[in-house]
């Protein structure tokens, strides 16, 4: 490598630079407005000569030119690139107004739906712009005023609610105070009253019990059922009753039922 580099820089003794017709690139006359830059394609496009697609982001060595056009003192630049297949020249410009680029020559920009639906401000005159801005400002102010009114209303409602709560609280307090006072004064009276009530309830219950018992011992005809013990004539049965052993709670073993009884299985009668 290094050898090659050295060799290429060899100038023979009879070298005459004026004999060269081709001017080296860096010495060619080019305006100060033109310079070579490395860039990426800012949008996808299709070459008009060969139909090659050049996708957004493809890198190019481009010539950058400062045009005389301006947008609000912002200079507009033009770039020259070459098609990757047919080397046809493609140019595009910056578009500061829409923060975009405009394809000029040699290629067609691909369709991009999000660009189609943008609000169309291109043909807006200055007066229209001013009007639009004014309208927007007015709307903003109205919105703010509406917000203020809403705030005021809310405050009013809040204070109303607070007052209602305070009233309710006051009422509860006075009632509590009244109850306390009455309790302190008439505690004993109340106590005796309670006792009276309890007695009354007990008496009523007893009466009810009695009534129930009486009804239980009456036959349907309204005759009193006689107790067997009272019957003197039938002393034998009474004695038998008396001698009956008292009920015992001891565990009594019951005879086991046959297992199949509960399951509805019937034993076949034996054939023998
Ligand atoms: Zn091409």
TrEMBL record:
PANTHER family noted in UniProt: SPLICING FACTOR YJU2
Similarity annotation: Belongs to the CWC16 family. YJU2 subfamily.
Principal subcellular localisation of the protein: nucleus
Signal peptide feature range: none
Keyword Metal-binding part of the UniProt annotation: yes
GO molecular function per UniProt: metal ion binding
Residue stretches of biased makeup (Basic and acidic residues): 192-206
Transmembrane segments: none
Region annotated Disordered, chain positions: 192-272
GO cellular component term, pick one: U2-type catalytic step 1 spliceosome
Subcellular location: Nucleus
Superkingdom, taxonomy of origin: Eukaryota
General function of this protein: Part of the spliceosome which catalyzes two sequential transesterification reactions, first the excision of the non-coding intron from pre-mRNA and then the ligation of the coding exons to form the mature mRNA. Plays a role in stabilizing the structure of the spliceosome catalytic core and docking of the branch helix into the active site, producing 5'-exon and lariat intron-3'-intermediates.
Chain residues that bind Zn(2+): 47, 50, 83, 86
Subunit note: Component of the spliceosome. Present in the activated B complex, the catalytically activated B* complex which catalyzes the branching, the catalytic step 1 C complex catalyzing the exon ligation, and the postcatalytic P complex containing the ligated exons (mRNA) and the excised lariat intron.
Pfam families attached to this UniProt entry: Saf4_Yju2
GO biological process: generation of catalytic spliceosome for first transesterification step
Keyword terms: Metal-binding, mRNA processing, mRNA splicing, Nucleus, Spliceosome, Zinc
Listed name of the protein: Splicing factor YJU2
